[in-house]
Every structure is written in C-alpha cells, then in structure tokens.
C-alpha cells in the first residue's frame, strides 16, 4: 500500500514537471514569433545568387544557348576577355620541379612566380642547359607600388639576406646555363638602393662560372647617385636592363609615382657611359608593355628617344592583369600589331627586338640571340687584340735588329 502511494506521488510530480517545461517552451516560441503584419525575415545567402539569365527551360527547349564569349551590351563592368593566343598550359615536368626545389632549398625568390609570368612553364621546363629561372634579388617585397605589378609592397621590407649572393651563384652554377637573368625589387629604404648587393651577386656568379653571360634588370636607384648605377654596370655585367614599362604619358598611371620616363632613360644612358669609361662592353635593354592605354604615335616617340639613348635591345609584350586589385587591361593587342612594332623598331636600328603577346623582359629566345651577339663581338675583339699584339711584337723585333 505504501509502495503504491509512493509511485503515484512520483508520477504526479513527474507529470507536473513535464507540463511546466511545455508551458515554458510555448512561451519562448510565442516570444520568438514575429508579430502579426510584420514582414518575414529573408534568410541570408552565404554566396550571392548567380544570375546569368538562363533557366532550366532554356536547356530543355532545344534552342541554341547564347554565346558566353559575347557579353550583353548592358554590362557596365565589362573588360576585354582573354584571347586564345594568350592562354598557356599549366607548368609541370621534371625540370620544372627540379628548379623549384633548388630555389626553395636555397631560400631564393623568382620574378617568374612573384609576377605570375605566363612563360614560367616554358622557361623552367626546358632541358639541361636551356631551363632557366629569373632570380629576384633582395627578397620578395618591394618599396614601390606599381599598378601593374603583383609583387608585395612595404615601406620597410625585411633586411637583406647576406647569403643571397652566394646562394644565387650556387643555384646558377648547378643549371649549367650560358646566359642568366637577374632582377630585383626596388629598395628605396637602403642607402645605395641595393646596388652593392646586386654587384656582389654578379661578381660571385662570374667567379663560379666565368663563361656565363649575366643580364640584370635593375631598379632606377632614384636619389642614390650615379655611382650606384656605375657600381652595377662595371661589376662584370654583360647586359644592363631597366624597363621604361610604358610611354611617357601613361607612366604616372601605370608605374609608382617615384618613377618617370626620363629618369629611366637617364639610368640606361649612365650605365652605358660608366661601362665604357671603365673599358667594359655592355648592352643596354628595356621593355614596353602594350595594352595600357598608349597611342601609336606615343610608342614611336618612345622608340626614338630610346635609340637616342643608345639602347640596344627592346621588347614588347602584352599587359596582363595579375589580380582584380590591379589596373584593368585597356585592350588585348593582336599578334599582327606586335609584328608591326618589331619591324618599326628594327628599322630604327635596335640590335634586337622581341615582340609578341607573351614576350616578357627576360625572354628566352632573345637571350639566345644576345648571347650569340656578345660572344661574336668578344671573339672579334680578342682577334683584334691578338693581331695588335703580334704587330707590336714584330715592330719591336725590327727596331731591335
């Protein structure tokens, strides 16, 4: 009897607890329910809805779908689509992997990766003696902020790696090349703009591989004095390259405001004069991007001024927007127009011109040509020197007799 009474009491208490919980839940739901007449909240989408104007009916109707390559006229944010001749394969292969491992193991950076060069697969994927990478000196962070360039920027980049000149020379000696291109970020934070670091790297490369030809794509060393340019030009360098990038009118909108067209011309002039004064022969080289808003007459004027500055080599390439944070492409230049500018530049007297949509300032085909030109010139100079010594010796013998 007592047991039955205890069970009834427990059941009653349990029932009361359940009723209390139900009442609380109902009250909570009532409070959370929107008031009558209030609009229902629309659930937020994690991603914006894609609206291309097509429905399921368009696909099952059997009618042809609109061409995705032909955007509608009402798109206010339209910019030119990438033409087929600018598309390139994904880089891969044994040589590509080997070069990448060498660079990572020695802590080196390349402009090929940092600037998202479209030719990386072609250059890194070549065979022994032809595969190459353009090593970027002084780190991966630049003090300039050009609107076309994807390299990181900072007012105070990390300090220079004192082992970089030696590591660069070691990597290049492994590849067994006849021609190598170096480039660098701008380092306005350094007293000499990094000139001594670049010159040291070139000297160490020449020590490890005396026969290799070295091209250096340099900063403008603005405000650092002509001696910084001379230091690099006389360090054993074979090709001194500095890019004007675009025509004079477009320069303020394309390059960092600290750079200008005439300043770049002065760098190329100073480099050649400094080398000649030191009894060294170098070629000077520059590059122009097309598709940033330039006009034909401005390109012609830029080429005339480059020839007046005795620049030997010029390259033309298509500007390709690296990310949506960079300036838009004004237009994609057709291959026929690149061929036209190649002809115009050659008729002006440039030693070599590389011109094409995928041409970049360090272009492999151009390197082979320049290598042959320099070797022939130096062989001819050596023959002349030998002949002069022989003539001088013969004359001395006649005098002694």
UniProtKB/TrEMBL annotation:
[4Fe-4S] cluster 1 binds at residues 112, 117, 123, 362. Residues 125-351 form the Radical SAM core domain. Binds 2 [4Fe-4S] clusters per subunit. One cluster is coordinated with 3 cysteines and an exchangeable S-adenosyl-L-methionine. It is found in: Mitochondrion. Pathway: Protein modification; protein lipoylation via endogenous pathway; protein N(6)-(lipoyl)lysine from octanoyl-[acyl-carrier-protein]: step 2/2. [4Fe-4S] cluster 2 binds at residues 142, 146, 149. It catalyses: [[Fe-S] cluster scaffold protein carrying a second [4Fe-4S](2+) cluster] + N(6)-octanoyl-L-lysyl-[protein] + 2 oxidized [2Fe-2S]-[ferredoxin] + 2 S-adenosyl-L-methionine + 4 H(+) = [[Fe-S] cluster scaffold protein] + N(6)-[(R)-dihydrolipoyl]-L-lysyl-[protein] + 4 Fe(3+) + 2 hydrogen sulfide + 2 5'-deoxyadenosine + 2 L-methionine + 2 reduced [2Fe-2S]-[ferredoxin]. One of its GO terms (biological process) is protein lipoylation. Its main location: mitochondrion. InterPro entries: Aldolase_TIM, Elp3/MiaA/NifB-like_rSAM, LIAS_N, Lipoyl_synth, rSAM, rSAM_sf. Keywords: 4Fe-4S, Iron, Iron-sulfur, Metal-binding, Mitochondrion, S-adenosyl-L-methionine, Transferase. SMART domains: Elp3 (SM00729). It is an enzyme of class 2 (transferase). It comes from the Eukaryota. PROSITE patterns: RADICAL_SAM. SUPFAM superfamilies: Radical SAM enzymes. GO terms for molecular function: 4 iron, 4 sulfur cluster binding; lipoate synthase activity; metal ion binding. Its EC number is 2.8.1.8. GO terms for cellular component: mitochondrion. Belongs to the radical SAM superfamily. Lipoyl synthase family. HAMAP family: Lipoyl_synth. This is Lipoyl synthase, mitochondrial. It comes from Cutaneotrichosporon cavernicola. The lineage of its organism: Eukaryota, Fungi, Dikarya, Basidiomycota, Agaricomycotina.
